[in-house]
Amino acid sequence: MRRRSETRRVAVQLLGFWQxxxxxxxxxxxxxxxxxAYVSLQQSRTAQGAMGWVIFLAAAPFLAIPAFIVLGKxxxxxxxxxxxxxxGAARAIWEERRLNKPATRHDPSIDQSRVRAFEMLAGVPxxxxxxxxxxxxxxxxxxAIFNAIDRAGRYILLAFYIIRxxxxxxxxxxxLTAAAARGVTVKILYDGVGSNWLNRxxxxxxxxxxxxxxxxxxxxxxxxxxxxxxxxxRKIMVVDGDMGFxxxxxxxxxxxxxxxxxxxxxxxxxxxxxxxVAEIQLAFAEDxxxxxxxxxxxxxxxxxxxxxxDAVVVAPGPADPIESGSLYFCNAIGAARERLWIAxxxxxxxxxxxxxxxxxxxxxxxxxxxVPARPDHLTVWLAAFPHFEIVxxxxxxxxxxxxGFMHQKVLLVDDDIAxxxxxxxxxxSCRLNFEITLVAIGKGFADEVAAMLIxxxxxxxxxxxxxxxxxxxxxxGAHFARLLAPIL
Length: 488
What we know:
By secondary structure, the chain is α/β, with parallel strands linked by helices. It folds into three domains: 7-72, no CATH class; 77-110 and 127-309, Endonuclease Chain A (Endonuclease, Chain A); 324-487, Endonuclease, Chain A, CATH 3.30.870. Helix content is 47%, strand content 19%. It has 15 helices and 21 strands. The strands form four sheets. The protein has a 15-stranded mixed β-sheet, with helices on both faces. Helix 1 packs antiparallel against helix 2 (47-59) and helix 12 packs across helix 15. The longest helix has 42 residues, at 2-43. It is globular.
């Protein structure tokens, strides 16, 4: 009897101990959630973002705490300071070594007030004498990229958010190793989150060919191992300082329409020659200096060509002193007088962009937003629907691309401003990622972009059903996703 009593007493004590531990765990979670909410109030770039985190942390701390650890911190003081220092160093090298050619503009009728802000955001001038060639979809894009690699004589600089060890990834690898074998210097930057599943054997094969392969944040990981922010979402390739590529395509079979879930994959890339290639190269040089602490010896004097397009490269990032990604969109929207067409796979803009879009529509501009009808990231896709309602009320037209998945990031203003790059119309691109886009000024290139988008609109349906009449599951998901919009 005494033994049973002793066993019962021990069991009660253990139960009490675990109850206390559970209570301590719950209380600790709420205390930590309160602290992280305070951190979000201090560090979030927008009031909407801070409020989104505060609500999430208060309502579901067990889910919100790990989410905040991974996604919540958008400011890294030491990283920002170091990034700005290295950016200044890279630009000093650029200014020293490039030929100081005048920023000639072939079209004297260009209204400087419409493009001045692009130059200020970029920190580099609008340069004339360029040739820009649209590369529509994966086959055309990688044909041009592979041809450029095969013609490389001195060096190849390549940066992608996603590089996969699949058919197109291995084809790229083989072209690069062949270039290295004939004496071409090859530098590769990839993002550790976007390329998380990249096989180590893939990298070892490249390194065995004396190709430098560097993860973007490899040199800056201390204290932020679990952070998904401060990502390099840029897609860049530069060959010999004379030819550059930017756009929406990463390196993966899905971009070649080989993923059954997303057939066909609609995307747009850009091949560029002329003086503005130096500005594309500058963005890579800054990223390389950030990742390695080593400057690159590059050609800063691209060959003169008979080009008729003026262009400037805008490369926003989270270390910028102002919200350059959001301001890029606001400036383009404000410049529109007759037409504003934007193609983006995601539509989760901040309040400033939403206001600018509504004002543009209210002053009579033909504002069209082209988005995919099917999602690749469900939460971001759902979060767009409440924003659709906000801008549709002002006259903005929303088109849903129905033929496969649309991933391009293209902007067209009137008949003389066009942009192709990596910037999505969402908070992550505008505030948390390093991005790049080329803004071209000139009727010829703008006409080509307009013709391309007209074909895309023909493959899209105008969204006319309000959210209140959408299927119940979509409505419920959209309203929940909207709460997370500031942090998506």
